[in-house]
TrEMBL record:
Domain of life: Eukaryota
Record flagged with keyword Nucleotide-binding: no
Pathway stated in the Swiss-Prot or TrEMBL entry: Lipid metabolism; oxylipin biosynthesis
Catalytic activity line of the entry: (1S,2S)-OPC-8 + NADP(+) = (9S,13S,15Z)-12-oxophyto-10,15-dienoate + NADPH + H(+)
InterPro entries documented for this protein: Aldolase_TIM (IPR013785), OxRdtase_FMN_N (IPR001155), Oye-like (IPR045247)
Start and end residues of each NADH:flavin oxidoreductase/NADH oxidase N-terminal domain: 15-333
Name by which UniProt lists this protein: 12-oxophytodienoate reductase
Family: Belongs to the NADH:flavin oxidoreductase/NADH oxidase family.
Keywords tagged on the record: Flavoprotein, FMN, NADP, Oxidoreductase
Amino acid sequence: MHFLRQGSIETVILRVVLAPLTRQRSYGNVPQPHAILYYSQRTTKGGLLIAEATGVSDTAQGYPQTPGIWTKEQVEAWKPIVNAVHAKGGIFFCQIWHVGRVSHKDFQPNGQAPISCTDKPLTPQIRANGVDVAQFTPPRRLTIDEIPQIVNDFRLAAKNAIEAGFDGVEIHGAHGYLIDQFMKDQVNDRTDHYGGSLENRCRFAHEIVEAVVNEIGADRVGIRLSPFASYMESGDSNPSALGLYMAESLNKYGIAYCHMVEPRMKTVGEKVECPESLVPMRKAFKGTFMVAGGYDRGDGNKAVVEDRADLVAYGRLFLANPDLPRRFELDAPLNKYNRDTFYISDPVVGYSDYPFLETTA
Ligand SMILES: Cc1cc2nc3c(=O)[nH]c(=O)nc-3n(C[C@H](O)[C@H](O)[C@H](O)COP(=O)(O)O)c2cc1C
């Protein structure tokens, strides 16, 4: 995978990445034909799209109607979606995901407890829609012998993603989900060699990166991290040290990119001003560095010009503007996003019905 180098002429357009966005429209955990239109609308020739978080196994799920990539049916269902993105010249990575303890027994096979690095329960949380309250079943702590199976699930998911036609995978190591649960000291209370020191807490993430790299090749692998985020009760006492340690230690794998969420993202969708910065991690990581979180056209371009990032991922703005790169190029006005339709299961409304520039006026 060859990403842009500094100074490329396509600076504005091709540095605009579609951030991974859960849309909860994959009925029965199977990607649906309506995703063909949604993703192809958001494709620009040479631009990178990251698919919504996609479960690696039947224990990976924690939300209704989110896609998976562990069955043959799911792999087949992704194919026409990936083909549509490729037909328009896009580069498409699949975000592979395990929610860990952010789940309920109703999402789990045989109603079993969700798995995590810990058995500490998660208190009920207000859902992203700001209204509903999500309940979680107390997790079961993985035994040390079980960890290789979960690593293997990520490896198989990556293999399946390549079979489905994706150009690569983004390992979801952010936002309080399983990999993040291992990394963060607010959650991880293990006393074996997966807990305690930074090196130990990051071991699970490293094992997954290594397994996935060995399976599909380093140039097809990215990882997303949110060291500063603390949602889902997954904070760390020293996020700068964690972020820096991961940025440095990932260098040995030569992966396609490292994608970090800005410290200013207090929740998945709320931006606050803060003094921390990703610049030390950007400097420590030797490959392509992607940032996300609260960016608009102006500060995204500024981040690239000031060499604080190679790529900028846009979430909510891209959700609401299928032609976001073109609008940025022209500095055109943007559609506003509607939070109420982010996670509804409608195959069209709030999904593929945001207007393109030509039809906006
Ligand atoms: C509707 C919605 C769904 C999201 N789903 C995911 C997801 O599946 N995986 C992920 O890593 N982040 C997810 N995020 C976070 C976004 O990728 C992004 O980091 C966040 O929206 C901040 O960027 P923005 O200010 O450009 O929207 C989601 C955010 C929103 C609003």
